[in-house]
Structures are given as structure tokens and as C-alpha cells.
Amino acid sequence: MSEPSDPEIIVPAHLEGGVFANFVKVFDDIDDATMDFSRLDPRNPSIGFLVARVSAPASCILILKQRIEHMT
What we know:
By secondary structure, the protein is of the alpha+beta class.
């Protein structure tokens, strides 16, 4: 039996450019985590602008952790 391939992901045109974040805050519990990605104002780093909020189950967070660890 062959392994399932990654699904085809369609990126809507308005999301193709992505967003820039230089700060992340994580809120978690046993089942999932919510990450708020923000861009800090370079003139006043005590102010940030939320650019994306991502909630994901623990299984996705573990995959993300493994990928980040292999970057170094």
C-alpha cells in the first residue's frame, strides 16, 4: 500500500504575499495551541500589530517543532 501524499493546497490570491511577523505569543492547553503572530512597530517596539492568529492541534505543533529543530 502506498503512503498518502500531501494534499494539494490552494492559496487564494489575497494570501499569496503572506505576512511578516517578528513576535509570537503562544496560548496553549492540553489539546491545542493558539499562536498570535505580530509585527512590532520599529519606531515603538512596545506596540505590535496582529498579522495572523493560528490555532492548531498538538499534532501540528509537534510537526512544526520537528521542522524548526532540523533548520539548525
